[in-house]
Write a structure and sequence with these properties.
Blueprint: E1 2-4, E2 15-19, E3 27-30, E4 37-41, E5 45-50, E6 55-61, E7 65-71, E8 76-81, E9 85-90, E10 95-101, E11 106-111, E12 117-122, E13 126-131, E14 136-141, H1 170-174, H2 187-191, E15 196-199, E16 205-212, E17 215-222, E18 227-230, E19 242-243, E20 250-256, E21 259-265, E22 271-276, E23 285-291, E24 298-304, E25 307-316, E26 319-328, E27 332-337, E28 347-351, E29 355-359
Antiparallel strand pairs: 1-26, 2-29, 3-4, 4-5, 5-6, 7-8, 8-9, 9-10, 11-12, 12-13, 13-14, 15-16, 16-17, 17-18, 19-20, 20-21, 21-22, 23-24, 24-25, 25-26, 27-28, 28-29
């Protein structure tokens, strides 16, 4: 069952639903060249979904499968295996080409918007930046105590004391660093060691959210893989991260004393403002954040027991407005905005029972 809350000025034009009949699907990636086509993955198999035609077919099996990405230029699928292998699936030949090996267990794959670069995160808290020819550009240990090529600006808006701190006010600017790690993260976040990577819309920078000494932080790198900034130490940062395509803010969930918020950070890692969520973390947990391609809508996916919610927010006159909320009576396995230029406001949602929805 799906409940759609009343919308405020953000019209739902249509909703398309396809029951794949497969409850093992983990993620879905949109084919940006062929409208109505997506690629879904499970533990060891990749499927092509033609959701407008209500069809799904198996493309290939691949043990140890991590993730896939449709490459527009070569019209191939890039396939990442947890073991570190990188493969290309050729649709015409129905076969693989092995194009690279990371030499470590891969935990995530994130392509730049122009698909000229890809970042692989590894189990040993490293990131490997590779170009479209699958040559290594840079390899970085995230746990190294380096800040970056650019230090915090010490005057004007770059200075911590002059930053906007939301309802926390002046005390937030003067707050001392927390040293008790039990105050930093919830137990489930301490156990969550996943490294998450997001790109800015123009592909000039990417941010990496990771866990170090029971503290979540993020680092910002340029296209050459050179570290530019490290975020300031903040209480309660969590693992989800999203970079507004226009480049203004990096969004990260954060538990601040008795509040649950989406912290909004500048590229230099300084916290600028926040979006206060209408629930407590003890009741509902943020799992994922996604900005629409035009930077207008921030989608926040949460879990409450066996239910999932997706909240759609927009910003106007420095105030956040909840435009719509979607409620699902089961877990959302994956959701994302359609990256196609003609589908900017299309939201793809995959549920645990294999149901696939496209909202426009």
């Amino acid at each position: 069952m799906i409940v759609i809350a009343k919308m405020r000025n953000l019209l739902l034009l249509c909703k398309e639903n396809f029951n794949t009949g497969c409850n093992k699907l983990k993620s879905v990636k949109v084919d940006t060249q062929n409208s109505g086509v997506s690629y879904a993955t499970c533990e060891d198999e990749v499927f092509r979904i033609r959701w407008r035609e209500q069809k799904m077919e198996s493309l290939f099996t691949c043990p140890d499968l991590l993730d896939v990405e449709y490459l527009m230029l070569s019209t191939e699928l890039c396939v990442a295996k947890k073991s570190g292998e990188i493969l290309l699936w050729n649709f015409e030949r129905n076969s693989f080409d092995e194009v690279g090996f990371c030499g470590d267990t891969i935990t995530s794959m994130s392509w730049s918007p122009d698909q000229e670069l890809v970042v692989f995160a590894t189990e040993s808290s490293k990131i490997i930046l590779i170009n479209s020819l699958f040559d290594i550009v840079e390899e970085v240990n995230l746990l190294e105590n380096t800040f970056g090529d650019k230090e915090f600006v010490v005057l004007g808006w770059g200075k911590k004391e002059t930053q906007f701190h939301g309802s926390a006010g002046k005390k937030a600017a003067q707050r001392k660093e927390v040293t008790d790690i039990t105050e930093l993260l919830a137990p489930d976040e301490i156990e969550n060691t996943k490294v998450n990577v997001v790109w800015r819309g123009d592909g000039e920078y990417f941010a990496v959210n990771f866990l170090k000494d029971n503290l979540r932080l993020f680092k910002v790198f340029n296209r050459e893989g050179k570290l530019q900034y490290t975020s300031e130490k903040c209480v309660g940062l969590e693992s989800a991260i999203a970079w507004k395509p226009s480049g203004l803010w990096i969004a990260v969930p954060q538990k601040v004393s008795d509040k649950y918020v989406i912290g909004l950070f500048e590229k230099n890692g300084l916290r600028h403002r926040e979006l206060c969520l209408p629930f407590k973390r003890d009741d509902e947990i943020v799992k994922s954040l996604k900005w629409s391609s035009d930077s207008v809508v921030l989608a926040i996916q949460t879990v409450k027991g066996n239910q999932s919610f997706i909240y759609l927010y927009t910003l106007g006159n420095y105030h956040w407005y909840l435009k719509q909320s979607l409620q699902f009576q089961q877990i959302v396995q994956h959701f994302d905005w359609d990256p196609s230029l003609y589908e900017w406001k299309s939201l793809h949602v995959l549920l645990a029972d294999g149901s696939y929805f496209v909202y426009k």
